[in-house]
Amino acid sequence: MASSLKRILVTGGCGFIGANFVRLQLENHPELAITNLDALTYAGNPDNLADLAGDPRYTFVHGDIADRPFVTKLIADGGFDAVVHFAAESHVDRSIHDATPFLRTNVIGTQNLLDAARAAKVPRFVHVSTDEVYGTLGPKDPAFTEETPLTPNSPYSASKAGSDLLVRAAFHTHGMDVVTTRCSNNYGPYQFPEKLIPLFITNALADVPVPVYGDGMQVRDWIHVVDHCRGVDAALRKGKAGEVYNFGGRSERYNMEVTKAVLKLTGKTEALIKYVTDRPGHDRRYAVDTAKSERELGWTPSVTFEKGLEDTVAWYKANSHWVDRVKSGAYRGHAG
User: Fold this and answer.
1) Spatial distance between the Cα atoms of 66 and 44, rounded to a whole number of angstroms
2) pTM assigned to the model
3) Residues carrying an active site annotation
4) Contact criterion met (CB below 8 Å) for 216 and 258
5) In what helix (H) or strand (E) does residue 100 lie, and over which residues does it extend?
6) φ and ψ at 71, to 5 degrees?
7) Considering the domain 2-192+224-250+286-303, what is its CATH architecture?
8) For residue 110, which of 143, 179, 182, 257 sits 20 to 30 Å off, Cα-Cα?
9) Residue ranges of domains in the chain
10) How do the residues of the chain divide into helix, strand and coil, expressed in percent and rounded to 5?
């Protein structure tokens, strides 16, 4: 598969993980041309890839994966060797408020892409999902494996589980060459500051309280976004059709540990911590077993949480203009 990759379609490439993936591909694979399809919803930020505007290997297309005729034509005309599907609504709190956009993008959009890719005979389809489809773990439970049943607990994770099952069905029903990846909590540069780590970094730097849900003892496994993107690349190039691959950072931390670490790195005191009412149905613990990915793809996480968090705080400090444009909404003033 690796040697035959010349043109790939990335969906959601202006989002946090997608943008990092586009950068990694262009840096590591000079023979590759990338088309980035993004609807530029609130979390799709053209600023994330603005410096690539002059790169002849990079093409931006503004469009919605839920627009079936548009997607069908784009993929039919594109001559793509692979589709790497990041585009998703992904914020749990927003899904609790209104699940409809999550169903439209994550379920309908994914099926549109699958249908279009199958009709165009695209050789490979990589679907990027989340460990949240597995549900929650108790303190002593073993980590999620690829065989763990899907038991999603939020509208967001339910919509992603739905998309995962559609991808599975495309393999079993139509024989499509599909690979699904599931990943633990990401952090790193270009992350929209509604998620825990960038929200807490940007709040702390501005001396604004950091809102901790409940008792702050929820446990998450944190993976640096570059390690995740390396995993998706490995799945794209080495993954077996029909398989699922988990990626995690081997870095389980209590949310309160992460909060205190951010405050220390930003030079702030714990007086900024503000406890808020816990989210409804908040999963208590996620942990991911990555043995299969390590064994079959030769992938291992390379960034420790301590070094990754230090670098991430430094990035947000150095990119205050990016943060200001996100927080003011100015980044939405153009379509790339």
Assistant:
1) 15
2) 0.94
3) 131-132, 156
4) no
5) helix 100-102
6) -65, -45
7) 3-Layer(aba) Sandwich (3.40)
8) 143
9) 2-192+224-250+286-303
10) 45, 20, 35
